[in-house]
Structure prediction request, 297 residues.
Amino acid sequence: MKNIVMFCGKGGVGKTTCAAATALHYANKGKKTIIISTDFTPSLRDIYEIEGVEKPAKIADGLYLDEIGYEEIERLWDQKFGPEVYGVFSTVVDISYEEFVAFVATIVPGIRDEFMVDYIRELSESAEYERIVWDTAPAGQTLGLLGMPSIVNEHLKPAPRIYSRLKASRKTKRSVLDVIKGWEELSNKDMEFLRSDVEFNLVTIPEALAVRQLDDIIGEFQSYGLNINNMIINHVVKDPDCDFLRTKAAMQQGYISEISAKCGGNQRILYMFPYEVKGMERLQEAERVLFANDLST
Ligand SMILES: Nc1ncnc2c1ncn2[C@@H]1O[C@H](COP(=O)(O)OP(=O)(O)OP(=O)(O)O)[C@@H](O)[C@H]1O
Ligand SMILES: [Mg+2]
Prediction:
């Protein structure tokens, strides 16, 4: 059992809802849990209906929440990597530090994506929490985030040859080659972390467009050597008792079979509720449905 559980999928399918219910599940089981969002338009505070701005925020006993926004990522990135990357960059280009940070933020956003993976890896290593539930932005951004470590690695391959011809300025504490080697190691470490420590849950709904996108998403994960561990089928109609719901349920049935065939049995179902899933009581209900057959965790 992996201690970090990530939720991904296309827009609006219920990633945040499933992540919130799953975090509640672990906390109910007595595991100290943090739910962390790297979606830049986060909604977890609304879903749990908590106010206040503490970071991390306490939701209930053993359940905490942290939302990481753009500004925070920029600040943390700046603290951890900024001066070092600037050290390398400023050997080639005459640029002030402030201009450089703005440049990185706008032109090379991928570096910050990698930093998110790194941030969660460090949180995991700190062993502060027994479970980390990771809610992400809609599929496009998530996959960019996953690919980042290997992309950075790829781009850095020719770098030593180029940089080794340049003399590092006096301001640079470590040699340029050392710094590049450090980035490479970091990329490998983050990729390894994703492969070995993170459980991936792909959330989908039984509708044509969502099902069609599944192959692309699964394929992209595989291209990074990552596997989807569980599929969650959300918005499933239960006990249809009118023509409207019977028609919808019949339509869903075909798609559910298709999804099941793709995921080889590792699937959970979340029924469609007649209300939005918001507040503790409703999240508990979603948790009961999602983990109805689960005796292990
Ligand atoms: N099973 C369900 N029954 C009823 N409403 C649901 C269910 N699952 C999700 N919802 C509602 O659908 C809306 C979208 O859900 P959610 O925010 O979890 O999706 P998301 O995939 O995280 O979206 P985004 O891609 O924007 O991050 C919310 O209002 C949520 O309450
Ligand atoms: Mg969401």
In short: The mean pLDDT is 82. The first helix runs from residue 15 to 28. The chain has twelve helices and eight strands. The beta strands are 4-8, 33-37, 57-60, 63-67, 131-135, 198-204, 230-236, 267-271.
